[in-house]
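Reposting from the mailing list since nobody answered there.

I have sequence plus structure tokens for a pair of proteins and want to know whether others read the tokens the same way I do. The first protein:
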Amino acid sequence: MSASDVMRAVRITRHGGPEVLELTEVAVPAPQEGEVLVRVGAVALNNTDLWTREGAYGRPEDPGALSGWRGPIDFPRIQGADVAGRVVAVGAGAPEDLVGRRVVVDPAIYDTEGPDANPVGLMGSERDGGYAEYVTAPVKRAHDVTESPLTDEQLATLPTAYGTALGMIERGRLHKGDTALVSGASGGVGIALVQLARARGARVLAISSGTKIDAVREAGAHDVIDRAGDITEQLRAAAPEGIDVALDVVAGDLVGEGLPLLREGGRWVVAGALGGHGVAFDVRRLYLHNAQVIGSSMHTPTHFGLLMDLARRAEVQPVIAASFALEQAAQAQEELSRRGHVGKIVLRP
């Protein structure tokens, strides 16, 4: 591959609506020391793509500021955190035998080298991502999944949605036999939570609505709570003994309503704010019952390793809602923002 090689990529040069996504030709990136070059087989979309594009994350000192995931975005930026593909070249110090291997890239940029490191950056946000024909990644973030029976599209759905879900499940210490509550259950992380909690042997109660209820049940929920009804009442009926772990991507009013439903020592894990980021709850329900509210952002390297083990054995079956060509990235993001689908939307460069 020569230095003159160009590739198609979709990038943003500013914050805004879907119109800021531009299809362009750029040089194929060269893998630096300790990096691999991956030909992208599929890249999955996430809410973070929308929010990064819109600059919707705010900053600790200014919640209204236009900002990427962890601060200002360095434009131009190629979006896309979730990549499955094949290694086509390696940089200095990376093993040659990776060439030709099928990989899933861990999109997290971590704060330390350790197994329990925290993600402080994200591919597609703090470094270029997979809305392109090729992407580079650190060799230690490229996980060999050549033997997995899952397709590239299915594998691409795993990093952010399933990584976030597994991070929540691990941080919430969900055990076999526990009762788990999953909010926002038809979304990418929601379906992942339902599948992973079920695979772990938990009893899964999921909150969803309308036409999506059947799909959530199909993904493995034992009971589905209809968001249109009285959620608290339905939960009390479905789990009279209480909930061990809530896996919540909605937040908002649900936190205050739901905390009293936790069992003694229960955990409420929050990894999103689809229902609003202003939360009020009765703090007595927290300390009198030794409950915990746990924030969870993505996954650690250890969690991601567990996820890749599941992928190699196909212990989860990701649901693909729709597949688009690279040049349809704006259309794909609009489809994602409408939230009419169940499962994951992917691009095929």
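The second protein, same order (residues first, tokens after):
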Amino acid sequence: MSTSAKPSAPAPATVTDPLTEAVRAIDTTALDCIQVNAAVLAHATHGPHAHLELGGRLRFAPRFGEGRRLPTVEQTPAHQIAWMGGSLGLVLDARRPLTEGRALLDLLPEDGSPLYVVGDAWRMPWLPYHGHQHMDHSVLLRVADGGTRVEAVDAYDNETPYGRAEPVVCAYSRSQVAALFDGSSVLPVTVRSAPPAHRPVSETLAENARDADLLLAGDTPARYAAAFRDRPDQQEACMALLLETWLLNRSRRLHAAWAAHHAPGSTLAHTARDQAAAWDDLAGQCYLAARRVQRGRPVPPQIYTSLVELLRADARFAVQAAGTGPGETMPQEPAEVRRTVVETVADILGTAPEAVAATDDLSRLDGYASFQMVETVERLEDSYGVEFAPGDLEPAALRRVDGLVDLVLRTTAGAEVAHP
């Protein structure tokens, strides 16, 4: 059967299906095509926000190719799979690559749990890349209808040159699926649950800062930008740079979402958001440059300068976010701490910040009970890189925004290192 075989009507999504619920719940526009379906698995396994742990590390680690190859920040699927599992609370066990569709079908769990698969987007008819462009792409496959059919669950969301890719759940016959994956290399990855990741925010920020110190001490951003600027074939360079800035933009948006979740309203969250917005602007400029060079017009030279400046701004932000150093403190502004407290409680309850700010007694809010009080305390400790004294955790104070603000201000004022 041809690989262009069309799927049947999309499988009906039930409200109890954790995969389709996860696809709807996640902001998939901050994830690349390898991350996105692993993120769905994390959400389905550990609940909302679990996938955001992919965004904690603020990375810039380009691979400089030999010969005429341009550098790239894109990592191989095998490399991404190796580090994603620990962040997501999953055991991702990559098997040997296959080239036979029926061998892939034999790996599908009979209980309907998903198999994570990386294949060629050229062979996936639900994607606009189908029949147009070869590229690695992930999908979740699972048996349905008593094993007679197979569902493809793909949360990828992106505007492509061939049309829009949108999250889908498609059902195929087993023979169709075997035909779709026959003759191309497919990497199957079995999935098991592991304990969810609970890495302290301060540890992640410190690791980001160590990487950033090395970047600021060297010339990697300048070398990286120069490779594209000095490429004789500027059409090739601009198309490659468009992909690079797309990847960097998505990773910075994911980092901003991670920061907003762990430290809502904080300097960390606001600066991460501003950096992500700057990357969004640069990605737009690179798209414009690629279109101009395709029409024989010169490339706006400022995109290369902007690229270097933005990479170095990322690094300075990472150093600042990790604190000022042992023995020093970073005084907190009361208004900013109040905003952080309000947004933290609002995020935990899934309610509007205005409702939290207007409430004298948080226990009057629907859902704010002992469990939510504990989560608020833990989130604020993570946000500011401190540990509240047990004697300060009075229920009367923890039920009031003012009480929580005072707790943060007193604790950070006495801490050796306070994180924004």
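Reply #1 (J.P.):
I read it the same way you do. Residues 234-262 form the longest helix (29 residues).
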